User: What shape does this take?
Amino acid sequence: MTEGVTSDTYRELSENGVQKHNSRMIRLLRENGGKLPGVPDDEMPVLILTIIGARTGIERLTPLGYFEHEGRRFIVGSNGGQQKPPSWIFNVRTHPTVSVEVVPDSYDAVVRELDSSERDQLFPVLVARYAFFGDYQARIERVIPMFELMPL
Assistant: This one.
């Protein structure tokens, strides 16, 4: 994970300032060519997703880990292994057209939630690369959703 972010860190951020944390990550990504300082290259890369709030209609920038498989790009709604899903999920379900920034490049995309059979096929691929997702899924009751970023 990025900069030692753990499930406990996500719980703390949920209570004490996700926006401040996200703003810092976005700044670091942009200042460092898409890399987070001190994070090894084999860690999950991070992109910046520009989304529209489901209830507010306000544009939000959200840094998210992503992975690529067979030429496609995916994001995962793990929320650091918490039972509560991340709020960005509700936003992209309501407003699936987004902007994706993989510093220094950006493009518009549609977020498509994988159906259960696609998710069940791809989740083991994700876990093979980033085992912590398997740990997250094992300790929560909800199914961690997966989403494809489909360029427009």
